[in-house]
Amino acid sequence: MKTAFITGATSGIGKAIAQNFAKQGFRLIICGRRKEVLENLKEELAVSTEVCSLAFDVRKKDEVFAAIESLPEEFKNIDILINNAGNAHGLDPIAEGNTDDWDAMMDGNVKGLLYVSQPIIKIMKSNKSGQIINISSVAARQTYANGVVYCASKKAVDVLSEGMRIELTEFGIKVCNVQPGAVATEFSEVRFKGDVEKAAKVYEGYDALQAEDIADLVSYIVNAPERVSIADVAIFPKAQAEPRTVFRK
Prior knowledge:
9 strands; Rossmann fold; globular; two-stranded antiparallel sheet; alpha/beta; 8 helices
């Protein structure tokens, strides 16, 4: 039984991946900041598989390291890491940007990914096997006005994914960078600081991707033949041509 470690598992893409993996019988380590939500998800998934939950904030390295160190012995041998936790805050030009928003994005999307990855990479290197999937964004492919810092943080994820692949291929570790386009999740609610009405307009007039679509893609990646290493994947809804261009009805 393979063990998968999933960050940002309490909602959206992370939750969908956890549910997908549970159906396949993976042993799961689900992580998030909202402890009550995490425990409810654990109860749901435990019907299908073994589950361990870790409540921590990826932006706080001491919490991250302590949480991973606290894993029960049977969960310590991690085969798959899904770096999904991340955020977008605000849609402002740099000149008017909120520096707290910048910190939240850089700390969560970049430093948080590194904090989680380092101890798990050590485990995988020791085992000479493993797979890391980093959830980036099509925003890394094309910078857009008023979202420059978010785009930069996701470009950094692309670079880290490439760097991990260069450093880890000799140890039998696969690394994949997944770039989703518009996915109808809580993402926009966070970006607009809880403004549900404003967030809903992001997905009006077209059929946006669903979290399950990304989970299906991730499932394919982890179940590909051992000889296959999928390096980079961009996935758009049919109506989206690039990050800034969506054709609405």
